[in-house]
Amino acid sequence: MSYSFDPDIFRYPRYSEEFDRDFCRASRDEILHVQQTRLKAVLDYCWREMPFYRRLWESSGVSPADIRHPDDIARFPTWDKEVQRAEIEAHPPFGSYYRDTDPANISYLLSSGGTTGTPRIFPIMRDDLPGLQDIQARTMGFIGVKSSDIVQVTTHYSALAGAWCGTWAVEGVGAALVPTGSGKAMPSMRQVDLIHRMGVTVLRSQASYAERLAKTAREMGLDPAAMKVRTIITAGESYSQERRRRIEQEWNAKVYDFFGSSDTFNWSSVDCEHSQATLGAAGMHVWEDCCIVEVLDEQGRICAPGKYGEMTITSLNWRNSPRIRYRTGDLVTVFTDRCGCGRNLVRMSSIIGRVDHVVRIRGVNIYPGAIDATISKADPAIREFYAVASRVDGRDELRIVVEWPDLRDETIVERVRRTVVTHLSLTPVVELVPPGSTTTKTGIEGALNKPRRLFDERSG
Fold first, then answer.
1. What is the mean pLDDT of residues 422-435?
2. In 3-state terms, what secondary structure has residue 174?
3. What is the C-alpha to C-alpha distance for residues 446 and 430, in angstroms, rounded to an integer?
4. What digits encode the pLDDT tens for the residues 280-313?
5. Model confidence, pTM
6. Rounded distance, CA 431 to CA 412, Å?
7. Which of 218, 383, 433, 438 is most solvent-facing, going by the fewest CB within 10 Å?
8. What pLDDT digit, counting tens, does each position of 73-101 carry?
9. Bridge-partner residues for 150, per DSSP?
10. Average pLDDT of 198-211?
11. Contact 267, 135 (CB under 8 A)
């Protein structure tokens, strides 16, 4: 194998044909050898530089010397956002899992969304940026984004990390950036106007917002399929294969789904051609030289390939704070067989939801991704909807609110009801509302954070 290590353990090869051949298509033993070498070097670094990890690992009776194979990482303890919050309270304002918190060295102070509690603050140091950008630019290069492209980023620019990661990625491949931000910052009609007049070739957007922009374009008398957009990058939202197909048809563009985490600052996976051909069902490749993805059950045990569990990431490319066995709360599964594209990297499914967003109704677990897939099966013309679990007269009820032009259309009501019964084993209450009525609830138009389509409003 001719995979080339940089002397700096936090720098990684950008995408190239040589990298694809020498690493992505290498044997599993060769890939795991690279992973083990990288992992051992970063664990040694964490042991030396970060009091948090030394305390955590010593209390569990492990040290970097215990790593002889990447699988040995399972001996190390996991941690999550609750541990983060406790650390921040004990060692304000950031916690003790950073090597450097000197304000003189900070380039960005970013934040989590706070949808599951008090936002966590992430100091991004100047010497963090090259290594973080390596992986983000690699991901863009992998799907064919080049310096000649014009990339419009419609993720909200704020203290949230998403838009900035997209910006660093665009800068990393040398493409032109159109930083419009979300629909809340710039109205959708203006967004479409810029896509049209600037000749945007790559759109970075949440899937739901890409659909909304296509609808807006048609309302403006423009054909999105006739524009120059050839690639749409989605992230941060669970959505169905049917929705992906619709977006590709509306824009005449390929949709690539990414997974990235602001808690680990790693874009850990991306679609390949085979995943494209299967509308994402083949899974997204994981950059295994800088990221280990484990899937854990409720007892913290490794799940078998193909079984869903909580994603746990070991992210190695963040110099100031490598994240070792960080539980993300996302529900995912992995595939370990060689991909149909010929690459031998582990693949992960699209996120179907979060551990804390799963809604259990009458003994049935409902995931956000399953809701989207089910509603799309009922009628592909349904674009916007949300589902609510509530308690009515002491009984759990699932209510599905669907945007539809004819509010008296009992045929679509029955079709949605029947499809939900078939695929989710629940009989819902279906409510039709006028087009545009759900965006405040789901947050799609503003896209200040990840849109939500599944809510639990039960109490007690």
1. 93
2. coil
3. 25
4. 888 999 999 999 999 999 899 999 888 999 999 9
5. 0.83
6. 10
7. 218
8. 999 999 998 898 889 889 888 989 999 99
9. 176
10. 94
11. yes
Tokens, residue 317: 């490319």
Q: Which of 260, 261, 290, 258 is nearest to 275 (CA)?
A: 258
Helix H or strand E segment including 399: strand 395-403
Judge whether residue 418 has pLDDT over 70: yes
pLDDT at 391: 87
Burial class, 285, CB count within 10 angstroms (exposed 0-12 / middle 13-18 / buried 19+): buried
Encoded amino acid at 244, one letter: R
Beta 254-261 vs 266-270: how paired, if at all? Answer: antiparallel
> Which residues sit opposite 354 in a β-bridge?
330
Q: For residue 404, which phi and psi values (nearest 5 degrees)?
A: -155, 140
CATH class, domain 358-456, is alpha beta
From 246, 179, 181, select the one nearest 208 (Cα to Cα). 246
Amino acid found at 196: H
CA distance from start to end of the chain = 58
Altogether, the residues listed in the chain come to a count of: 460
Tell me which DSSP letter residue 291 carries: E
Query: Which residue matches tokens 């070739």?
Result: 201
Question: How many CA atoms, within 13 angstroms, populate the side-chain half-sphere of residue 335?
Answer: 18
Q: What are the extents of the domains in the chain?
A: 358-456
The beta-strand segments (E) located in 160-303 are 176-178, 202-204, 231-234, 254-261, 266-270, 284-286, 291-296
User: Which residues, 6 or more positions from 132, have their beta carbon under 8 angstroms from its beta carbon?
Assistant: 124, 165, 168, 265, 317, 318
φ, ψ of residue 308 to 5 degrees: the values are -80, 145
Q: Is the pLDDT at 182 greater than 70, yes or no?
A: yes
DSSP secondary structure letter of residue 160? B
Contacts (Cβ under 8 Å, ≥6 apart) of 278? none
